[in-house]
Design a protein that fits this description.
The protein has helices at about 95-110, 135-150, 235-250, 275-285, and strands at about 5-10, 20-25, 40, 45, 55-60, 65-70, 70-75, 80-85, 115-125, 130, 135, 160-165, 170-175, 180-185, 210, 215-220, 225, 230, 260-270, 290-295, 305-310. It has about 325 residues and is an alpha+beta fold. It has a single domain, classed as RutC-like (60s Ribosomal Protein L30, Chain: A, 2-Layer Sandwich). A seven-stranded mixed beta sheet has the order 4-20-19-21-16-15-14, covered by helices on one side. The protein has a six-stranded mixed beta sheet with strand order 6-7-8-13-9-12. Strands 1-5-2-3 form a four-stranded mixed beta sheet, with no helix packed on it. It binds 3-(2-carboxyethyl)benzoic acid (3EB). 3-(2-carboxyethyl)benzoic acid binds near residues 160, 161, 162 and 220.
Length: about 325
């Protein structure tokens, strides 16, 4: 059995919350009945627009809630989940708010003992909007990069997704462990952290995938080959290229037989694309995969979609897996 699972469901976890690491909501604000369980109210909405969906991370062992500063978290034997709202203010440049949020996250990692982040999700409001002469996503990259430079123990950053939402506030949530992940790059793509400066003053700090034990966390993946967008504005072409990138990463990670418990999240600029995208996702990851389609703004305006995937299949091994 894997050390955690990820479910997409219509309701918040009910009476049995003993194993819950965290709940992420698409379409609903904080609800009181969850008590100390970390709850993330995202600025994203389900593509289907017919109510709220919850992403629920559950551990294979009982969890304990931990709050360290502004980070709400929970830990199992081998895994920590945490979340923070990005402290944006009227006169605070986004890079400063992001840098501060990530410093709080590193405080959480150090104090909880789960020192190695293995996967980040970043949901920003107005991601491609201009903020005093620089795009907000580019400001985000500056702030994240500064915090990683100061605090990240791993030689390369772990997997991540970064997309935009339309309502509410910017949030970050993450999974962490006591051992660092093995990071994986895609031979079809330039590493994001080596993108040329045309995409912003600081390149994005993420790896294409993190492998922790036998569990694979594939970053938000789009129709990018080398460092360039392919099939700009064209759905079928972007979908084909994105699936090729996901398939390549799965193979490189040793998960190419596509067995295991897959949880897939797709971010769609146009929510009416969900049926076409679902056909391709089912074909690659199988009809038994868990799938969630969200209405989101992808961080390049010519990209129509971004897809992430988790393959949860292995026990945690206690042996260190990467040099730190
Ligand atoms: C890309 O490949 C598309 O900045 O954390 C995907 C996943 C993307 C994560 C991030 C950005 C991020 O560059 C965008």
């Amino acid at each position: 059995m894997a050390y955690c699972s990820c479910d997409f469901q219509r309701f918040t976890p009910g009476a049995n919350t003993e194993h819950v690491l965290g709940t992420i909501s698409y379409g609903r604000e904080q609800s009181a009945e969850l008590g100390p369980i970390p709850f993330v109210a995202t600025p994203l909405r389900p593509a289907a627009r017919d109510g709220t969906v919850f992403e629920v991370w559950t551990a294979s062992t009982p969890t304990t809630s931990v709050r360290i500063g502004p980070v709400a978290g929970a830990c199992s034997d081998v895994l920590a989940f945490g979340t923070i709202t990005v402290p944006e203010g009227k006169d605070v440049p986004l890079e400063d708010a992001v840098e501060r949020a990530y410093h709080h996250i590193f405080d959480f990692l150090e104090q909880s003992g789960f020192r190695e982040p293995i996967r980040f999700w970043n949901y920003l409001t107005a991601i491609t909007a201009d903020e005093h002469g620089l795009e907000r996503y580019r400001r985000f990259n500056i702030g994240r990069h500064r915090a990683f430079l100061a605090r990240l123990r791993q030689p390369t950053p772990p997997a991540a997704s970064c997309v935009g939402g339309y309502e509410g506030v910017s949030v970050v949530y993450f999974l962490a462990a006591r051992t660092a992940p093995v990071v994986i790059e895609n031979p079809r793509q330039v590493s994001a952290y080596a993108y040329p400066p045309v995409y912003g003053p600081t390149s994005p700090s993420f790896s294409r995938a993190s492998l922790h034990g036998e569990n694979l966390f594939i970053s938000g993946t789009a129709s990018i080959v080398g460092h360039e967008t392919r099939h700009g504005g064209e759905l079928r072409g972007q979908l084909m290229e994105t699936m090729e990138n996901l398939s390549t990463l799965s193979h490189v990670a040793g998960c190419g037989d596509m067995s295991g418990d897959w949880a897939i999240k797709a971010y769609l600029r146009d929510p009416s694309h969900s049926e076409i995208v679902d056909q391709a996702v089912r074909e690659l990851f199988g009809p038994q995969s868990r799938r969630l389609y969200l209405h989101a703004e992808v961080c390049r305006t010519d990209l129509l979609l971004e897809i992430e995937a988790c393959c949860l299949r292995g026990q945690e091994s206690n042996a260190p897996q990467a040099s730190v």
